[in-house]
Amino acid sequence: MGCLLKKRIDIWIIIEMTLELKMEVLKTTGIIHIEPLHCKILSELIYEKTNKRISITTLKRVYGFAVTECNISRYTMDALREFSRPGL
User: Into how many domains does the chain fold?
Assistant: First the structure.
């Protein structure tokens, strides 16, 4: 397999994992259709459950309400995973 094809597959896997994680977070909160105003509530819920802060702006970027060219940080991904984990 060529390097370019492998890189595209790796990027696709990351995108799929990110989409699944975002859906799990919404499922955890009971939010069916996320709106920008939910990002403040979500930020507070994440902090209450995980003791990790994710800014409202970061959540807006994660859910596509704010433009960014950066990838989601490992810290943010870990906090979202921890938040969506059952039983915490």
Answer: 1
